[in-house]
Amino acid sequence: MRRTVFNEDHEAFRETIRAFIEAEVVPVYDEWFAAGQAPREFYEKLGELGIFGINVPEEFGGAGLDTHKFEAVLYEETSRAGVQFGGSGVHVLLALPYIKMLATGDQKKRYLPKFVTGEEMWALAMTEPGTGSDVAGMKTTAKLSEDGTHYVLNGAKTFITGGVHADRVIVCARTSAPTAEDRRFGISLFAVDTKSEGYSIGRKLDKLGLRTSDTAELAFVDVKVPVEDLLGEEGKGFSYLGHNLASERWGIAFGAYAQAKAAVRFAKEYVQDRTVFGKPVAHFQNTKFELAACQAEVDAAEAVADRALEALDAGELSPAEAASAKLFCTEVAHRVIDRCLQLHGGYGYMNEYPIARLYADNRVNRIYGGTSEIMKSIIAKSMGL
Predict the structure, then answer these.
(1) Among residues 3, 182, 240, 339, which is most buried (max CB within 10 A)?
(2) What confidence tens digit (pLDDT) does each residue in 133-160 have?
(3) Is the pLDDT of residue 1 over 80?
(4) How far apart are CA 220 and CA 238, in angstroms?
(5) What single DSSP character describes residue 196?
(6) E strand or H helix at 225, and its extent?
């Protein structure tokens, strides 16, 4: 099917990324998988490639563009190769929007040049043990010192993607207690230097999927955060978090669609090569019908993901539309990848085959960024229900 979402620049970028993956990632990916993370120096290679600076203003070393289409190409190409770029997606998709939206001119001068090169990797710390999707229930606190020069940060976070290698983490913390009328009141955002005294990384979490993406528990014990590292206004953190949820959910939706598309490719190649009862598996009608049904679902998900991408770039992607795209694309990917694994038979259960890793990687898409159930609630509310 002909797509109109990408132009010649995006396709040239695609060729560059595909060659980079083949040369720099595929040969060592099994080592990353076994280690449970990509090496820290890999992110500096991504910085050299220019991936981190696409949406960063030129004055700070970036390309000065304002689009998510290059990120979309990255989703498609990493999925096509059956690899992940570690925790780097959080650096660009989650952290950068907050820096661009909230950082002062001085903060941007301090943060963005090192952000672009990968010298400083960023992560986002919202979730706490026991709170899950209930961000307003967070207990981490940041109290202003008596002399007004710094905040004292105490608390813990969990499920922090990129948390092991991060040099700075955007931490959500309470600067004021919630009120009886508003549980969301009093949350602020801080760009915390991970080298600060009292900052510690707990367990590197052992996940079902996304094995090369480091995910950690974080703890803060009397961490001093300079007032110069407060992002935006004190107490307005919850509204800031809501502002960027649409782009985060688009990213999950598009990534899920790309995984589903890759799964069909892996299954098609496998059934054409694999022989049973003297015939290629692709010869049997059931195989053809299964792959045809999967392709139809992928075509539909691609249309939804592309439409959401265009709306996001135009600044018109509403929370309900983002929720709808995430719900649809992640549910499609779940069904498609499961059916494509089934066509691999027993080999589909082996981690040496990309379909097995894809199956595990995909499962979290219906959980993080807001569960499928929360997406349904958002959509229902937009319908007036």
Answers:
(1) 240
(2) 677 789 999 999 999 999 999 999 999 9
(3) no
(4) 20
(5) S
(6) strand 215-226
Catalytic annotation present for 77 = no
Q: Tens digit of pLDDT for each residue in 69-111?
A: 999 999 999 999 999 999 899 999 999 999 999 999 999 999 9
Q: Is 24 strand, coil or helix?
A: helix
Structure tokens at 24: 């720099």
| Total number of residues shown for the chain | 385
Give me the amino acid identity at 165: H
Q: What is the mean pLDDT of residues 16-24?
A: 98
Name residues whose C-beta falls within 8 Å of residue 161's C-beta, 6 or more positions apart in sequence.
Answer: 87, 89, 90, 123, 210, 213, 214, 215
Q: Which residue has the tokens 């709306």?
A: 311
Chain-centre distance for alpha carbon 266 = 23
- Count CB atoms within 10 A of the CB of residue 346: 6
DSSP 154-178: EEEEEEEETTTT-SEEEEEEESSPP
Distance in angstroms between the alpha carbons of the first and the last residue of the chain: 36
Give the residue ranges of DSSP H helices in the chain.
8-20, 29-35, 40-49, 69-81, 88-89, 96-102, 105-117, 237-243, 245-273, 285-313, 319-343, 354-362, 372-382
Q: Which of 76, 128, 248, 297 is catalytic?
A: 248
What are the C-alpha distances in Å from 63 to residues 20, 54, 67, 192?
A: 19, 5, 11, 26
Phi, psi of 61 (to 5 degrees): 100, 5
Do residues 216 and 160 make contact, with C-beta atoms less than 8 angstroms apart?
A: yes
Q: Cβ of 12: how many Cβ atoms within 10 Å?
A: 11
Amino acid letter, residue 70: F
